[in-house]
Amino acid sequence: MMQEAVSNADYKYRVEVCFFPGQYPLYAQDMGIVVVIDVLRATSAMVAAFENGVDRIIPVSTIEEAAAYIGKEGYIAAAERNGEVVEGFAYGNSPLAYVGEDLSGKTIVMTTTNGTKAINVAKDARMLVVGSFLNLTALSEWLVQQDDNILLLCSGWKDKFNLEDSVFAGAVMDRLLESGKFGVEEDSSIAAKYMFMSARDNFFSVVKAAPRRRRIQQLQLLPDVKYCLTPDQSAVIPVLKGSELVRLDTTLSPA
Amino acid sequence: MMQEAVSNADYKYRVEVCFFPGQYPLYAQDMGIVVVIDVLRATSAMVAAFENGVDRIIPVSTIEEAAAYIGKEGYIAAAERNGEVVEGFAYGNSPLAYVGEDLSGKTIVMTTTNGTKAINVAKDARMLVVGSFLNLTALSEWLVQQDDNILLLCSGWKDKFNLEDSVFAGAVMDRLLESGKFGVEEDSSIAAKYMFMSARDNFFSVVKAAPRRRRIQQLQLLPDVKYCLTPDQSAVIPVLKGSELVRLDTTLSPA
User: Fold this and answer.
1) pLDDT for A189-213, tens place per residue?
2) What is the 3-state secondary structure (H, E, C) of A93-125?
3) How far does the CA of residue B53 sit from the closest CA of chain A (Å)?
4) What ipTM score was computed for the predicted complex, to two decimals?
5) Across the interface, do A160 and B5 touch by the CB < 8 Å criterion?
6) Could you tell me if A1 lies within 8 Å of chain B, comparing CB atoms?
7) Would the CB atoms of B163 and A190 count as touching at under 8 Å?
8) In this structure, are strands B56-59 and B107-111 parallel, antiparallel, or unpaired?
9) Contact A211 B185 (CB under 8 A)
């Protein structure tokens, strides 16, 4: 199991995992494409919003920036802190809030505890895309065609290590390593692959196994969590253009 | 596998894993006993030195502090940076340097890249002990008797996640969770247990799987690495008293 994780010695590009936004500078060197991951729930919500027609998402760092868009025509203001919708906002980071709505032509302005922070630290990457179980296969298939080093950036939970983001990173890595084109050099990357291998038969068990905040929130968040852990509900890959996330046009030739 | 890791819901105390010294403040709250871990090689060297008779070890942060003891009667000055013995020193962080020597009555003054840094950040813990595969069973058996929360503090590698320290933390955790007395609340702790479960059949494979610095250093460090990954060569548990590490007297009643 251990050796399987790093068997391809002749890789051309690296795929690595960074466990928290705070460590991004330690891992960013030589990385062309950054995949921001916040499975519960920011990046899941972003993919769900695009899947339901939204035009663009503007990730912002502060509640004040998002609040300026409350009630503004064509905009949806979304703010989450500590897992809750911020007072005064109709939307937080629940992907289910966007499901079944027609959001064509709308712009979401979103701030979250962890996910938008991760986007912010990596915003100067050559290319920044957004990953979640919702777009796992579409994202992996696109990544494997790219000729560049890839950093899977987990959002974590308030600067701490986060299991579901790391398992997702391991899932992406598993597919990229299979190609033989990518290899790993960081211990964190190997660890993420092991976590994925431990969790692969039941993504949902990951949540049961992550006790503290789940114990508190499990009941009210259960539909959200199930949704966020269900792979391949969307083929959309959000990509950062300037300060906005838009749909990546995957019909273009590899970057 | 996932559920097994957190099956004991009626635990009295927590055992948690912190992956880097820099995150210690995020995990230190309510923790009574801190176990500092630097498998390759500082904490392995410390246990080996006590096993070979040394009286005490003074961990210091700077090369200058250690250099002041070069040639001083009764002292051994040891300094390592980037895996190498620092110029001017006879000792670095290799445990094999202490094996087969009679070090009775000696004091080691030691500075290393990662391990002594971890000791320094946690020096105000109620109790700080040193762990390595060399004293795995003795340490685990002593820990399980303690009535306190336990933090397993990995030294990492230059502020990055480190596989062998995390696997060792998972090994200790595995034994503590079996007792039913301890439980976990942090995602990092669950992840460490998975890494241990992936690695348990062959500790040595961990090193093969951790590519970058191993690829560079594998050949010259191979005897050291084998020694550091061989469990249960010592019953000594180093404990910090003031600014010195000494042997813990495990015949005393639980703290």
Assistant:
1) 999 998 998 888 776 666 666 655 5
2) CCHHHCCCCCCCCCEEEEECCCHHHHHHHCCCC
3) 34
4) 0.90
5) no
6) yes
7) yes
8) parallel
9) yes
Tokens of A210: 């992550």
Cβ pair B19:A19 closer than 8 A: yes
Cβ contact B199–A2 (<8 Å): yes
Q: Using CA atoms, how far apart are residues B194 and A197, in angstroms rounded to an integer? A: 9
B2 touches chain A (CB under 8 A): yes
Instruction: Determine, for residues B19 and A23 on separate chains, whether the beta-carbon distance falls below 8 Å.
Output: no
The answer to whether A34 and A151 have CB atoms below 8 angstroms apart is yes
Q: Is the peptide bond before A213 cis (omega within 30 degrees of 0)?
A: no
* pLDDT, tens digit (0-9, with 9 covering 90-100), for B21-52: 999 999 999 999 999 999 989 999 999 999 99
User: Is residue A85 within 8 Å of A224, Cβ to Cβ?
Assistant: no
A167 backbone dihedrals φ, ψ, rounded to 5° = -65, -40
> Whose CA is closest to A151, among A10, A6, A15, A9?
A15
* Amino acid sitting at position B94: S
pLDDT for A20:
92
- Phi and psi dihedrals of A79, rounded to 5? -145, 130
| Amino acid letter, B26 | L
CB contacts under 8 A, A 149-168 vs B, are 157-163, 166
Residue spans of the domains in chain B: they are: 12-247
* B114 CB within 8 Å of a chain A CB: no
CA A187 to chain centre: 21
The angle formed by the CA atoms of residues B93, B97 and B101, to the nearest 5 degrees, is 140
In Å, how far are A142, B67, B76, B81, B208 from B91, measured between CA atoms? 51, 11, 8, 11, 26
Q: How far is CA A251 from each of CA A33, A49, A155, rounded to the nearest angstrom?
A: 18, 21, 28
Question: What is the pTM for the complete model shown?
Answer: 0.93
Q: Locate the chain A residue with the closest alpha carbon to B6.
A: A209
CATH no., domain B12-247? 3.90.1560.10
Burial, B133: exposed, middle or buried (Cβ in 10 Å; 0-12, 13-18, 19+)? buried
Kindly state whether A68 is in contact with chain B, defined as any CB-CB distance less than 8 angstroms: no
Interface residue A198 vs chain B (CB under 8 A):
yes
Among B24, B194, B200, pick the best mutation site for testing chain A contact (most A Cβ within 10 A): B194
First to last CA, chain B: 33
Which CATH superfamily, name and number, covers A11-41+111-247? ComB-like (3.90.1560.10)
